[in-house]
Amino acid sequence: MRSCGSCHVCLRGQPALCATTFALDERSPLRAAGGGEIAQGLRTAGFAEQVLVHESQVVPVPNEMPLDRACLLACGVVTGYGAVFNTAQVSAGDSVAVIGAGGVG
Q1: Cα–Cα dist 80/90, whole Å
Q2: CA 60, CA 23: separation in Å to the nearest integer?
Q3: Distance (Å, rounded) from C-alpha 54 to C-alpha 29?
Q4: What confidence tens digit (pLDDT) does each residue in 55-100 have?
Q5: pTM for this one?
Q6: What is the rounded CA–CA span in Å between residue 105 and residue 100?
Q7: Nearest to 1 by CA among 100, 87, 105, 79
Q8: How far is the C-alpha of 2 from the C-alpha of 55, rounded, in Å?
Q9: 13 HSE (CA, 13 A, CB side)
């Protein structure tokens, strides 16, 4: 989720609720050979070798971190962490059951 970093919800520490509209929301920078616009599914470019993203989506990865571990941070760790600490508000010493499949579950 892109965020502007300066609206009320961003400043409150909830950038996922940012409703700011960005240029990429209006038109894609991607073009076919004939010049027509290419629709980008969820604006993620999941299978691309290169991708254009808003600066709010960029996090530096230390050179010493192996990329096969760094790739887990974007979805599995952030989603799991958010579910445990923000949504469920699990504290030290709590007992929980995690039910799910895949990297997050």
Answers
A1: 12
A2: 24
A3: 12
A4: 777 888 899 999 888 888 777 777 888 888 888 899 999 998 888 7
A5: 0.41
A6: 4
A7: 79
A8: 8
A9: 1
